[in-house]
Amino acid sequence: MKILVVIIPFLTAICLGRIIIPYILFVSFKKRLFDPVDARKFHQTIVPRLGGVAFSPVQCCLFILSVVVLYKVNFVDLGLNTAEVFPMFMLLLCGLVILFLVGIADDLVGVSYKWKFMAQIFVAALFPLADLWINDLYGVLFITYLPAWIGMPLTIFAVVLIINAVNLIDGIDGLCSGLILVGCLFLGVLFIYYAAWLHALFAFITAGVLIPFFYYNVFGTARRKRRIFMGDTGSLTLGFSIAFLSISFAMNNENIKPFSEGAIVTAFSTLIVPVFDVSRVLFVRWRDKLPLFKADRNHLHHKFLRTGMSHHAAMIGILALATFFCIFNLVAVQYISNNIVVLCDILLWIGFIFVWNAVEIRKKRIRAKKLDVLHG
Predict the structure, then answer these.
(1) What is the pTM of this model?
(2) Stretch 89-107: mean pLDDT
(3) How far is the C-alpha of 179 from the C-alpha of 174, rounded, in Å?
(4) Which candidate, 304, 329, 311, places its Cα nearest to that of 249?
């Protein structure tokens, strides 16, 4: 019976997304609100970029409505300490509204990175304000309990990093929405396992509204006016949403879920690909003495495309990589220490990048030889 707590809102979110996105497409074409076409973009046709407008309203309204119905009908005992958990969700919804407004402003008229960064820090600070922060590393780096004066700033830094990592990974169709969809389903199932029903509810609502967007983003065609991007409105709010779910799962708090030894490693498994990729890109820019925040074509999806893979193949490959890390970490923490699992993650990532760089070089040499033959 309890599974209906998440299944019904999940299906409702899918239906609402399916209804709302065509209206966003209609308004976007009517008012000519398109993603600009330039040398850095892969698309060369007009495509609306306001798909993310559908996310936060569905997340906030459907979550609140579901919680009210649950408490009014009272057909299932959620076993929650509402005084402890509700402030976390109230400030989550507050942060989503703020990032929603910032995202729309950026998608329509542009917002300087300084103001976006300040907004990200502000919403990240809402988590510690609601007593949601990383208070335990579960033995990672041989550290367990974290005092508030360390854990709270660490949480703010982690939230800002996650939001930007999700925003920067949004480079090809279906990639950002697919990664967050995988993360929400993964964490949502784990929250169900630990009977953290409100967190599972939010995770599945987020996953539900992403499914119709994923379809329009990946399989929609620009010629039929059925293709759409999420824009910063979507990537900012999705980054904040997955940060909330990951930190909630990682926090050692019995009012959220029972203690589990590998919680922090499992929680951030869903973010390994975007966070590691952003870290790698920033390191390469620093090493080559390039501006750290200047856009380039060195992200993971660019590397996949340079080997000749199609956009869809690259997207599926990266989602498969993210799913592998989720499953690997979930299983590994049951048998080996968190430190070894984290080390394995880092080594696997470095090994993967090393192999892929070799593949890139080989493909580049083959193309160069073909050009030499053609011009020879």
Answers:
(1) 0.93
(2) 95
(3) 8
(4) 329
